[in-house]
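Please describe what follows:
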Amino acid sequence: MVKVSVMGSTGVIGKNVTFKLARADTINEVVLFSRPESLDKAKGQSYDMYDALAAEDIDCLLTPSCHYEDLAESDIVLITAGVHRKEGMSRRDLAFTNAKIVSNYAKKVAEYAPDAIILVATNPVDVMTTIALDASGFSRRKVIGVGNHLDSLRLKTYFAKRLNINSSEIHTRVIGEHGDNMVPLLSSTTIGGIPLKYFIREVELDIKEIINTLRNAGNTIISKKGATEYGPAYAISNLITTVITNTHKILTVSLYLDGEIADVKGVSLGVPAVLYKNGIAMIVPIHMNDYETKKFQSAAEQIRELTDEVRKSLKEED
């Protein structure tokens, strides 16, 4: 029996993740966790989802709840609750408000589902990953932020469209902050096994445009439809399924580092890691050129500064 709990299940991303997970053959129960005032909405969503699942002959237990006891025996608890970005807002704007929510929920997960893996989707996700780690007291290999997984998928899609090549032939990833200080690993990107630097001799690519497109992808979607929805939900579901199925895939997630990449310590950032049923099997060592290394270390300093401010704020309120 596999059980996943979604904290923030009535939000745009939460409800999409819940439905995607309910349709997965590998998951038996999804808890739609919400605040008491949102419980009726969670119940309504579960009824609607049951109707859709019936059309596909899928049997998955959906449990709307506002009781922490229902988190018990969860294999994974997704924290996606919090204030969501609006057009023009930075992830930093969200940090102090969302830290209170994430910290409280992480403590409750530790109390009621001590064997679970915590997956953090609340923004700013790198900062929130550290906050969840602090609050839960879990091993750092069991507290994972969504990180740059979606950014990496976006970069892969960009190259596929720009070069008119099947996306399966493109191997690339983004590391660092999930935000303005993201670092596309262009030096190790390959197209059909050919390093990008050799491939682009025949194709014109504006690298600055690529980076700007990635950095502004979320705001572009928010400006046109009000919120990001399908991309984050499917990226999160992909991460959860990878853990549940124990497939040992390498995905780019936010983790608390202890010198594994570019000697960065004491901060959570997006890095490639092998995911398995118990969380993180290993952080994958990577080669970066000097520019990428400096950008990664710069991202670490900026995220560490914000994380320290948020930690201090939480201590002052205790």
